[in-house]
Amino acid sequence: MRLLLPLLLINLVACSAAPAPEPSVSTHAAKAAMAPYTVNDYVNNLTHQLSHFKRPLNSNTRIAVSSFYYADALDSKLISGQAAGLSQQLQESLLTQFTQLGYHTVEYRLTNSLTLNRHADSALSRELAELRERQNIDLIITGTVTRQQHAYIVNARLVNINNNQVLSAGSTEIPINVMWGSEKVQQRESHLYRSEY
After folding, report:
1. How far apart are CA 142 and CA 164, in angstroms?
2. Residue 112 domain flag
3. Is 115 a domain residue?
4. CATH code at position 98
5. Digits of tens for pLDDT over the chain (197 positions)?
6. Is 61 within 8 Å of 139 (Cβ atoms)?
């Protein structure tokens, strides 16, 4: 027992003399905040640019708004993945804002009848068979989206569909996180990128 007490004291002294472990460096990055404005706010800037014409429009000029596609895939690739919904929101916001400015906008997706479902009703469709055969449209707002590392670059044009003349154009930059927060894993051009571990 006499030997045990000195060994215990030596052990306690040795433990107290050992250096304290250094604090570990945190590897957790701060969560990225959502963009300061909504998509509608960024589209407001685009609407302002598009509404500057070389000469005034006739009061009965009919304007439609089309979907926005990736610039490198005009015939096939709607904006998808993390940006799902951006194309539709661009289209809907431009249609709404041009109507609010007093332009004669056309809803070409309007069907000939109201469709009633169990939980919803709809007067809009993308099925050609359900739409009116003849669409009375003079001008169309169309555009493209290009993805950059931090933002989507949106380019829009107001085009006369009879002669393809561009009457006005606009461009805006919409942050990647305007509709969605940062994701841990993102897919870009068939490659996965991880932002957190």
Report:
1. 12
2. yes
3. yes
4. 3.40.50.10610
5. 666 666 666 666 666 555 655 655 555 545 556 677 788 888 999 999 999 887 888 888 989 888 888 887 666 655 555 455 788 889 889 999 999 999 988 877 776 666 677 777 666 666 566 556 667 788 889 999 888 888 899 999 999 988 999 999 999 999 888 766 555 555 555 655 554 44
6. yes
Q: Could you give the count of Cα atoms lying within 13 Å of 192 in the half-sphere of its Cβ?
A: 4
Q: How far is CA 14 from the centre of its chain?
A: 61
Which parts of 87-182 are beta strand (E)?
Answer: 104-105, 110-116, 121-124, 139-147, 151-160, 166-175
Interatomic CA distance for residues 89 and 185, integer angstroms? 24
Domain carrying residue 170? 33-194
